[in-house]
Amino acid sequence: MKLSPTEIFNNKKIFFIGGTGFVGKVTLSMLLHNFPNIGKVYATVRARDKNESLNRFWNSVVTSPTFDPLREKYGAGFEDFIREKVVPVNGDVGNEHLGMDEAEAREIMQDCDIIINSAGNVTFNPPLESALRTNVVGTNNVLKLARMMKRPALVHVSTCFVAGKRSGSIWENEPVVGYFPRKEELVGTTFDVEREISDCARLSEQARQEAEDATQQAKFRELARQRFMEEGRDPDDEAELKSAIFRERKMWIRERTTELGNERADYWGWTNIYTYSKSLAEQIVAKQDDIVKIIVRPSIVESSQQYPFPGWNEGFTTTAPLILIALRGQPIIPVNEKLVLDIIPVDMVAGAMLGAAMNALIDDKPPLVFQACSGDSNPNDMKRIVGLVGLYKRQHFKEKETGNKLMNRVSAMIEATP
Prior knowledge:
Layout: H1 5-9, E1 13-17, H2 22-34, E2 40-44, H3 50-61, H4 68-74, H5 78-85, E3 86-89, H6 102-110, E4 114-117, H7 128-146, E5 153-157, H8 193-211, H9 214-230, H10 238-268, H11 273-286, E6 292-298, E7 300-302, H12 320-327, E8 343-345, H13 346-362, E9 369-372, H14 382-399, H15 405-413
Parallel strand pairs: 1-2, 1-4, 2-3, 4-5, 5-6, 6-9, 7-8
Helix pairs in contact: 2-13, 7-8, 7-11, 8-10, 9-10, 12-14, 14-15
């Protein structure tokens, strides 16, 4: 059967969560650029209120270079096109109905054909509560929204690294529910996502209870007084000291819940709290039998290959430190040259997400998992990556017009090695 992406997306209404992030902006722009016949995109933009949400969308999202192809395509009509196709919605996945009132949420969901959820806390080791709020509670909130749709359909963006500390091939058709990386090692042990979430809530409460201990309270006071003396403030000002003690307590609870979360993730076989919480979210999604769902797992998302233009990036991604230290003259990069760094261009991930959305729009029982990665079919080992950085460094300093010309020539000849 021949399928036309243009026909599939024709007049479809999409609820897009996470469209302000690195991957989200590229996906939203690509969707609008390649499928201008789309009906409408409701794009969540987290803010304190509706006006701030609109301002953030127009001043931070639309102004991004990711929208340059649309600006070139529509010229003076660019802004009118965006206003016609995109409806910014003030929403936070950590809140029920994403912060909308139920009536508004139901009205929007009744108008939508599919939800794309690319929101997530991508910090590797955040406080346990913070990770669960976005990646687990947020997923449950999205599922509640989906059930308000006429035909509930969801594309959920996860990560390949839910596989945890495992080597070898990880297949898309492996079981999701009940998975944990040490499953083959811990024979007879079961993993229940609902119990895990409950246990995590108990751990967070445990940290709060520990913070009420008399010794711990005394330590908070001692730390607050020390900080005041270091800052030249009066350590005997009880009114000011009270808020400082509260701040020390809050910081300690964050650190303690991060520690407890790390211990738990490590025991089950995950590398950090991020991958652990993303796996919990996957398992919640996979258990839903009344929703058309697809999980998209990117590996390490890096600079674009083509869209919005070759090399577009944002923020400090995984390879950025390698490039930075090489450009600054580091001769040896401390890496295992045989290690495969599974990287994937951001526009390929965006394409995979849109492909998954098309699949979910026309198939009531699509494949559960699509992995967007390169390690199997086109592996990049660290020897190759460091070599490519060296080639870039050579070109960079040859073409550099500022600085000392002799030093630029010397720098161009010195390449880093793994």
